[in-house]
Amino acid sequence: MRNVLPHEPALRGWLSRSTPAGVDPEDVIQEAYTILAELETVEAIRYPRAYLFQVARSVIMRHVRRARIVSIHAVGDLERLDHPDDAASPEQHALDRDELRQLARAIAAMPAKVREAFVLRRVDGLSQRQIAERMRISENTVETHISRGVSFLIDWFGRSGNKRSQTSSTVDAEIASPDGRTRHQSRH
Fold this sequence. Notes:
disordered C terminus, elongated, 60% helix, two-stranded antiparallel sheet, mainly alpha, 8 helices
């Protein structure tokens, strides 16, 4: 749910513009959450936002099919459901850029080998075997590095991108340069 709940405001906005007459957006949201809660596993869901919107669309379609009388307006509204308005506002673009900067900062803070394996897998899309060959390490070590990278990000963002508390008002951060060497940067 931590990956789905942040998308509820966008879903509410879309439902307020797209829901056919006679279908309550609150009912759609609750049914969508019920469907998600009943899933045995969510590991196969790669894009939670898209999945949530698709579940909501399916719930709306089910409501319309069950209705005894379907207005001509509902049919037109259903056509709009095929293309949810995903156009981001300027504010959303700014937020997205900020999130990408935070992610880049977190990845840059990873230990060098962990960062290299993580980027090769998650960004470049290489297989574990390809990464092992490129880094000249075993596939098990690649898996360990990637796992540590994911854990690092979970820990990093669990603290809202903040390092563990420091006793000084100055924080020294290790920043990786493009050539792979690390340098220290003082932040206040």
